[in-house]
Design brief:
166 residues; ProX/PRXD1; 4 helices; alpha/beta; Prolyl-tRNA synthetase associated domain-containing protein; YbaK protein; YbaK/aa-tRNA-synth-assoc-dom; eight-stranded mixed beta sheet; single chain; YbaK/aa-tRNA-synt-asso_dom_sf; 8 strands
Length: 166
């Protein structure tokens, strides 16, 4: 079974209602702004970060927010500054290439190498949150609480944090 089918099967097992919309490839939040009118709710972006010891953190933020990396580093107890993980690490651990990163890729981290997941508290202001279903040619909406439940099942720790820069 391919990863996307496993993802939707997991949603079904968990009782998570999901809606998926196909669209052209979008590699960045900026390039997907035109989808906002047809996809009401919170559009997310995800970042894979690592500290100097190589510990990985997956961050999913509201697409319009700039994530404060110092705040995230403090919240997750990072050793040193956080930096963006290389694409090869993303592919090895989460099974997706850069431009396709999504919190749903946690389903591919079977050894739970992601130390913690940070969810932006602003995502919880919306009825639905949109993220790629492991590919950037579609977006899938689920309730924010379901996103939290999914992350809790597929990671060691979940932190909800205000990520918008002050």
């Amino acid at each position: 079974m391919d990863a996307e089918r496993r993802l939707f099967a997991r949603f079904e097992e968990m009782g998570i209602a999901a809606e998926t919309v196909e669209h052209e490839a979008t590699h960045t939040v900026e390039k997907s702004r035109h989808l906002a009118e047809s996809l009401p709710g919170g559009r997310s972006k995800s970042l894979l970060l690592q500290d100097k010891d190589g510990r990985l953190t997956l961050v999913t933020a509201l697409g319009s927010n700039r994530a404060d990396l110092k705040k995230i580093a403090e919240a997750v107890g990072a050793r040193g500054r956080l930096s963006f993980a290389k694409g090869a690490v993303m592919e090895e651990v989460l099974g997706v290439a850069p431009g396709h990163l999504t919190p749903f890729a946690l389903i591919n981290d079977r050894s739970m190498r992601i130390g913690q997941v940070v969810l932006d508290e602003d995502l919880f202001r919306f009825d639905t949150v949109w993220a790629h279903p492991l590919r950037n040619t579609a977006s899938t909406a689920i309730a924010p609480e379901d996103l939290r439940r999914f992350a809790e099942l597929h990671s060691r720790a979940v932190i909800v944090l205000g990520l918008a820069e002050d």
